[in-house]
Design a protein that fits this description.
The structure holds three protein chains of three kinds.
Chain A lengths: L3 H25 L26 E7 L6 H15 L3 E7 L2 H9 L9 E4 L2 H9 L7 H4 L8 H6 L1 E2 L2 E2 L1 E8 L1 E5 H6 L9 H13 L3 E3 L7 H15 L1 H10 L5 H15 L12 H9 L3 E6 L3 H8 L10 E4 L13 E11 L5 H10 L2 H9 L17 H12 L2 E4 L1 H4 L2 H15 L5 H13 L1
Helix pairs in contact in A: 9-10, 9-11, 9-18, 11-19, 12-13, 18-19
Chain B lengths: L13 H8 L4 H30 L4 H6 L12 H7 L4 H35 L5 H13 L2 H14 L6 H25 L3 H9 L4 H12 L1 H17 L2 H6 L8 H4 L11 H26 L11
Chain C lengths: L17 H30 L2 E2 L8 E2 L3 H8 L1 H33 L5 H13 L2 H11 L5 H8 L16 H26 L3 H9 L4 H12 L1 H16 L3 H6 L11 H11 L3 H25 L2 H5 L8
Antiparallel strand pairs in C: 1-2
Helix pairs in contact in C: 1-13, 3-7, 3-10, 3-12, 4-7, 7-10, 8-9, 10-13, 12-13
Classes of the chains: A alpha/beta, B mainly alpha, C mainly alpha.
């Protein structure tokens, strides 16, 4: 029989220990920024002198896996070595967990630098006064970063963050399976694409893998159909006005239904998550998926023996829609960036410049962490498929950020919900467009 | 096996019950039938658990590409190895330590405060008792996820952000309603004679509480401890929001290391979570002996 | 334990200040609870009166508009329906099953400890791992489907997680798998409080096994059973973690429960005001259930005039 007194005593000691141990922790969690000292422009490039006061920069990012996590840590360490008075405190959380964590963070606890996808969420943060206007601070070096990507991190003309990774969504396909099905070259138009699907089915594979549970892979497909049918300007207009009951939207929905009618998806697509979609392609069970630049590494990771498709993997841009207003060079893409919060010290922006240096970004490229946006780093991307993606990004006449990130709130969620309903055959084009319009109003 | 169970209230095959009614042979047959039922249920429970445990010995490709197979082929020892002593080990053991601290503090506070409160609710009549009890029941009724935002603001104001206590204290608070609700009927069932006897021996309320009630309520206390530990052990959102640095993470947060932006390492996650649940299970095994330890027969006779 | 009347001391010279005792015993729980539970809840309820995306200051006061929207929303009522379904099924299937197992495990027999451990493991598993495992098991052509084929029940195979008509039922099975250990342990503790002598006495007196169960055992674990039912209903109303991990409320809204709806609106769609309103509505549903339950069912435990034997 346990001795209650002893247990109580033990608990007491433990409580003391914890408060003693943790008091160090709570101190370091206090708002990290020192009061910004000199004018922001002065901090732009000069390394702080050894006599400068200590500064802590809180950086929240989502690279939970290596090499990204290790690379980021190394960059931070290098900066700290060059600036002994600066300490960079990194918090790494997984993507979805990050969003939840940030949602629960009050304004005065916002980290100095944090993961951002630009677009609507960033706009909402700016509207709430959470972000810092870094337009002037980055002006001296902003031309070292891809302009199109930079614009995604602007809102109402003000720069709020820096992109370090930007890619484009396209079709990743199994070259061998295409050959087996008698398809000699990737389809250029949507009609050609639809014609290819039965051939693939006849060859015994699922032509296209999607993920009904995660919703966003198929949402990208619908988005491209919308873009190809309506064109970039119309799309921007729809986002601006919130009126999705447009011709282009209906046409996109109809195209999805036509696609459904061919029954091209992998078995179990309705409840499949993205892991399983990637595995289908990586294991050769499905011939294609429409995905972003991370596709090869995920396929590899999820496939048997972690082999992936190797050089059987190819890439082609989304086909054009004959009679549609969109151009072949319009793209849908996105990536990762870092936003700067209101009270971040100038050193944080200085660190960003260091982060974006060619040397650091080349490393991220070669390690496959992302497709860097720093001008001049394109050459370090050696994978032929990724080179195609880069080329597409470079040639893009119009680049739309993923719709569920370009917008925020109910509308962002509605894109995923409304479009997956189309793919699951549970909605009509008109209903889907109406759902979007309704969500935009909320 | 002595007296086999007489009935299971619902789906018991009537054949068994019919047999059970005849004397003599009844005991062995219904006993065996009960055993068969138990084994069947155990198999149904075991299968997914086994899948989880063995899943840690596969790699992602096997899990996704060959979902039928229970047995890994080939056996991949990397996942468990990395978690226990390999590259993920420092994180794992650190998180384990943090989880243990939080669990001990939270459960200690919960059980301590809850038993005191339940004692009052169960055995002392006072005005406003039911109202106050209902106030505690409120805590069971409100979904905590939505209270996270104001809760976190509060935790920061108390200076507990980034501190394991900032996780343990709210966790303890959330565990109170359930514990009180469970303990109250148990505390009620202690007969008044015992309390009177204790009083006669010179115990005040506290003495009765400490020396008679609590020891007699071991099954209930053990039950409540186990339930509180499990909740705290698996809590994710609160530690996610409160803790910033990885060396303060508790075990559920450690899983994040295996999930990246788009995909996750399911096999490694399985290995990690299977190992994570061992301490909680160990605690259950220990506590369980108190739950089913049998009561002190003879405390009140006739 | 025998039940006897008058288990409460309402006053008496032997208690040095009844209120002092009450205060000392209640204070710790009350303080911790008020600070970390009640205050955040009240604040969250306060959010429900605003249109607010969670960022920036609380400015846009809209009164009860969020509630009006919620009550008119199709998704809301679908969620309510899902919760009701789970409640009904839990009461009809889960509780009796847990009780049965608790009774079986109450006896001494070799290997009892192992069974008790095994049956409790699902409850200890975190939602994450449960989600992963069952997602893998329920994929088309995975273990469950193959198993059914193997025993010749191929006709029963469905798209367990993709078919919007049955996905909620699939989830109910998984929920039951995970939580029956919780009820089992609770009922087991309750059963432990019944001395064997009482049941043996009834049998000696000529009662059949079923009668012994119905008139002796069942009333004696009545309080525990009623708590178990209460927690089951409340738990079914609050259902979130497992659903979120397995289906995210989908496909579409087929498995959206009230709590899933609340989390999605609040955190995903960043309508914290609306999400808070949904939380309050959920709370009110649970409160009504709790109050009714307390008044009509638990009252006998509170008044405590139940004796062990009926006739």
């Amino acid at each position: 029989m346990s001795n209650p007194r002893r247990t109580l005593g033990l608990l007491g000691v433990l409580a003391l220990t914890i408060s003693a141990c943790s008091s160090g922790g709570s101190a370091s969690s206090a708002p990290a920024s020192a009061a910004p000292s000199a004018a922001p422009s002065a901090a732009a490039s000069a390394p702080a002198s050894a006599a400068a006061e200590p500064v802590t920069i809180d950086w929240w990012h989502i690279a939970t896996g290596d090499p990204g996590k290790a690379d980021f840590a190394a960059i931070a360490k290098a900066y700290e070595a060059a600036h002994p008075n600066v300490k960079i405190k990194i918090t790494v959380t997984e993507n979805e967990a990050f969003k939840t964590k940030l949602s629960a963070t009050p304004a005065d606890a916002y980290p100095d630098l944090f993961q951002s996808w630009g677009g609507g969420t960033m706009a909402a943060q700016a509207d709430a006064g959470l972000l810092q206007d870094i337009t002037a601070a980055v002006a001296p070096w902003k031309d070292t970063v891809n302009a199109g990507a930079m614009s995604i991190y602007q809102y109402k003309g003000v720069q709020y963050g820096i992109p370090w990774d930007m890619g484009m969504i396209g079709f990743w396909y199994n070259k061998d399976l295409f050959t087996k099905a008698g398809i000699t070259s990737p389809p250029k138009t949507w009609d050609e694409y639809l014609a290819a699907l039965p051939k693939l089915k006849a060859a015994g594979v699922a032509p296209l893998a999607i993920a009904g549970k995660d919703k966003w892979p198929s949402m990208h497909l619908w988005s491209y159909l919308l873009l190809r049918n309506g064109g970039g300007d119309a799309l921007s207009q729809m986002i601006q006005t919130g009126d999705w009951n447009t011709d282009a939207c209906t046409k996109a929905g109809q195209a999805v239904l036509a696609l459904n009618a061919l029954d091209p998806y992998q078995k179990g697509y309705a409840s499949a998550d993205y892991n399983s979609e990637a595995a289908s392609v990586g294991n050769g069970k499905a011939a294609m998926e429409l995905m972003g630049q991370w596709a090869p590494s995920v396929q590899k990771d999820q496939s048997i023996g972690k082999k992936g498709l190797g050089d059987k993997l190819g890439w082609f841009a989304f086909p054009t829609v004959t009679g549609g207003a969109g151009a072949a060079t319009d793209g849908i893409g996105g990536g990762n960036g870092i936003a700067v919060s209101k009270n971040a010290p100038p050193e944080a922006i200085d660190f960003l410049q260091f982060f974006m240096s060619k040397e650091n970004q080349n490393k991220l490229n070669t390690d496959g962490v992302g497709l860097s946006t720093t001008v001049g780093t394109e050459t370090t991307v050696t994978d032929p498929n990724l080179q195609q993606v880069l080329a597409g990004r470079g040639a893009a006449t119009f680049m739309q950020l993923y719709l569920d990130q370009a917008t925020s709130g109910p509308l962002a969620a509605a894109f995923n919900d409304a479009t997956v309903a189309l793919f699951l055959g549970k909605s009509t084009p008109e209903k889907a467009c109406q759902a979007l319009t309704d969500a935009a109003k909320k | 096996m002595t007296t086999g169970a007489s009935t299971k209230v619902s789906a018991e095959p009537t054949a068994v019950m019919a047999v059970a009614r005849t004397k003599g042979a009844r005991r062995t047959i219904s006993g065996t039938a009960a055993y068969v039922v138990l084994l069947a249920v155990a198999a149904a429970i075991l299968l997914p658990i086994l899948y989880a445990v063995l899943g840690g010995f596969k790699d992602n490709g096997q899990l996704a590409g060959n979902p039928v197979a229970l047995i890994p082929d080939p056996w991949v020892f990397d996942n468990y190895a990395n978690v226990l002593w390999g590259e993920n080990a420092p994180a794992f053991w650190g998180e384990l330590f943090n989880s243990v601290i939080v669990a001990i503090v939270a459960v200690g506070i919960t059980v301590g405060c809850a038993s005191a409160a339940a004692f009052v609710f169960a055995r002392i009549r006072f005005r406003g008792r039911e109202a106050m009890y209902t106030l505690f029941v409120f805590g069971l009724l409100f979904p905590t996820a939505v209270a996270i935002l104001p809760l976190y603001v509060l935790i920061r104001q108390l200076g507990l952000s980034g501190n394991l206590l900032g996780v343990a204290l709210p966790q303890a608070a959330f565990g109170l309603p359930l514990s009180i609700v469970i303990l109250r009927p148990f505390f009620r069932s202690i007969p008044m004679e015992l309390e009177d006897a204790a009083r006669i021996d010179g115990c005040g309320s506290f003495g009765f509480f400490w020396r008679v009630l609590l020891p007699l309520s071991r099954p209930a206390l053990a039950t409540v401890s186990v339930l509180a530990i499990v909740t705290t052990w698996n809590a994710f959102i609160l530690p996610l929001v409160v803790l910033n640095s990885e060396d303060q993470w508790t075990l559920p947060l450690g899983v994040m290391n295996f999930a990246s932006t788009y995909s996750s390492d399911a096999a490694r996650t399985l290995a990690f979570t299977v190992v994570s649940l061992i301490p909680a299970l160990v605690f259950y095994v220990i506590a369980e002996r108190h739950i089913v330890g049998g009561l002190t027969a003879g405390s009140v006779k006739g | 334990m025998f039940r006897s009347q008058g288990r409460e001391s309402s006053s008496g010279p032997r208690l040095p200040g009844k209120w002092l005792t009450i205060s000392l015993f209640l204070a710790p729980a009350l303080v911790v609870y008020l600070v970390f539970v009640i205050i955040p809840i009240i604040q969250a309820a306060h959010f429900s009166l605003y249109k607010w995306n969670g960022l920036g200051p609380l400015e846009d006061f809209i009164g009860l508009a969020n509630y009006q929207v919620a009550l008119a929303s199709e998704v809301f009522w679908q969620a309510v329906g899902n919760n009701v379904l789970v409640i009904v099924l839990s009461l009809l299937l889960q509780i009796p099953f847990s009780l049965g197992l608790a009774i079986l495990l109450n006896r001494r027999f070799p290997g009892r400890a192992i069974f008790r451990l095994l049956f409790f493991v699902p409850y200890v598993l975190s939602e994450a791992i449960t989600g992963i495992v069952f997602s893998l098991l329920l994929q088309p052509d995975a273990l469950v489907d193959s198993g059914l084929k193997g025993i010749g029940l191929e006709g029963l195979i469905q798209d367990w997680l993709g078919n919007t008509d049955i996905v909620m039922l699939t989830l109910f099975v998984i929920i039951s798998w995970k939580y029956f250990g919780f009820h089992m342990i609770l009922l087991l503790a309750g059963l432990q409080g019944i001395p064997r002598e009482i049941e043996e006495a009834a049998l000696i007196d000529g009662a059949g096994r079923r009668q012994a169960f119905r008139y002796v055992t069942l009333p004696l674990i009545g309080p525990t059973l009623r708590v178990s039912v209460f927690l089951s209903v409340i738990g079914a109303l609050q259902l979130f973690d497992l659903v979120w991990v397995m289906t995210g409320g989908g496909p579409l809204t087929a498995t959206t429960t009230m709590a899933v709806n609340m989390f999605k609106s609040g955190f995903e769609e960043q309508q914290m005001g609306y999400g808070s309103a949904l939380a309050v509505l959920l709370f009110l549903c649970a409160l009504v259930v709790a109050l009714l339950y307390q008044r009509f069912v638990l009252r006998r435990d509170i008044d405590g005039a139940v004796t062990a034997y009926n006739g």
